[in-house]
Specification:
Blueprint lengths: L9 H4 L2 H23 L4 H20 L8 H25 L4 H8 L1 H10 L3 H18 L7 H25 L4 H24 L6 H26 L4 H7 L2 H14 L5 H16 L7
Length: 286
């Protein structure tokens, strides 16, 4: 499978849902690594190291030409990079204040809004409603929490919506793997203002830097590269609903790796999300 193949045949071998689930698993491996970094570096610093590490890996791998793209394509790449960086930064700031479940539930308002906007039938609208209900159940929303955390989670959801919309445009660009590398560079610059100073304390600790690179690889490079493939196979609204697989994958990872058995509420949430995926539109965007 080549990320920049103009006529990908991935769909014939792997369903978009399978590809997306693989990216989600990689993302949770990166999240597990990041947990240890929070004890050593502030959340903004971890966010910057994660995005910067991913950008370094992608730029070293692709070595993209800066003369390949039109001004309009550069605008999409820059917007995608800003959304990518802001999404990571705001989410890390949110989970530093709010319970993880609450932050996730608020953040999911972004992709669900994209899915709702792209719905054109009653069947699709029902799928959006089921996804929203399932995500809320899985996230175990509570009213407690600092309003700053709520603000950051809402900002992360807004950036997530932008990631979907702008990412869909970037996926249509020829050599979109190079475009993704440049977007990650833009994301690193976006987060640098808030996070570079906090990350400076890790500069003399090779172990922390290696962990940051690993976080960027598993949390950004692998899942975002897979996202670019999936975005070429499905509509934007369908991709937005696929985001609902993230908490579902988390439940199953908890069962297998952590022996965390879901209760009735979590099981119902998984069922609602799966039902939403069945009902959502499957027609490709192009």
């Amino acid at each position: 499978m080549r990320l920049d193949d103009p006529h990908p045949n991935t769909e014939a071998r792997f369903a978009p849902e399978v590809l997306f689930a693989a990216g989600a698993l990689s993302q949770y491996v990166g999240a597990a690594i990041a947990v240890g970094l929070f004890d050593e570096i502030a959340a903004a610093g971890v966010a910057w190291l994660r995005v910067t590490g991913a950008a370094m890996i992608m730029l070293a791998w692709r070595r993209p030409s800066l003369r390949t793209y039109t001004p309009k394509q550069w605008a999409w790449i820059a917007a995608f990079g800003v959304a990518l960086g802001a999404m990571t930064l705001c989410f890390y700031l949110a989970i530093e204040i709010l319970p993880l479940g609450t932050a996730v539930a608020i953040e999911f308002a972004g992709p669900i809004a994209v899915a709702a906007f792209g719905s054109r039938t009653k069947r699709a609208a029902l799928g959006v409603a089921l996804a929203a209900g399932g995500v809320l159940l899985l996230a175990d929303v509570t009213p407690a929490g600092d309003m700053r955390g709520v603000f950051f989670a809402m900002a992360a959801g807004t950036a997530w919506a932008g990631y979907i919309v702008f990412g869909h445009q970037v996926s249509a660009i020829a050599n979109n793997a190079d475009a993704l590398a440049l977007a990650m560079g833009a994301g690193a610059l976006t987060v640098a203002v808030a996070g570079a100073g906090h990350a400076a304390e890790a500069a003399g600790t090779p172990t922390l830097l290696l962990l940051a690179l690993a976080t960027g690889l598993f949390s950004n490079v692998v899942p975002y590269a897979i996202d670019q493939v999936v975005l070429r196979l499905v509509s934007r609204s369908r991709f937005a609903l696929l985001q609902s697989m993230l908490p579902v994958v988390a439940v199953f990872v908890g069962i297998v790796a952590l022996d965390q058995r879901p209760g009735v509420v979590e099981a119902v949430g998984v069922g609602l999300v799966v039902g939403a995926l069945v009902l959502s539109p499957r027609r490709p965007a192009r």
